[in-house]
Amino acid sequence: xxxxxxxxxxxxxxxxxxxxxxxxxxxxxxxxxxxxxxxxxxxxxxxxxxxxxxxxxxxxxxxxxxxxxxxxxxxxxxxxxxxxxxxxxxxxxxxxxxxxxxxxxxxxxxxxxxxxxxx
Length: 119
Prior knowledge:
This protein is an alpha+beta fold. It has one domain (2-108): Beta-grasp domain (Ubiquitin-like (UB roll), Roll). It has helices at 35-42, 99-108; strands at residues 2-10, 22-30, 49-54, 57-60, 77-82. The chain has a 5-stranded mixed sheet with strand order 2-1-5-3-4. It is globular, with a radius of gyration of 14 Å. The relative contact order is 0.22.
C-alpha cells in the first residue's frame, strides 16, 4: 500500500516541482515512510534544506536534520524550504514542534540560523 503526501517546495527546491519560487507536488510513498524516504525520492540532501513543516508543525530548522525519522501518513502536507529562505522571527519558543525537533533544540539550545554540535 502507498500513501500520498502533498509537498510544498520553496526557494531553489521549487525547481524540483516545476516552479520558480514555490511548487506543490503530490508524492506517493510506501506506507510507514519517513522524512528521510521523502528526501530520497525527491533526491534532496537534507543539508540543502532549512525550515520544514509537517502539517503546519515545525519539524526542522537549518543544520539540525531532526526530522529524518518523522513518520509520514496519507494526506500529510510537508513544507520544505531551501537554505537561505524563510527567516521566521515569529517562530520562537512555545510554538508547536515535533518531539524530535524539541529534543534536538534542547540539546543544541535556542533557535539560531544554523546549528553546530557543542564542543
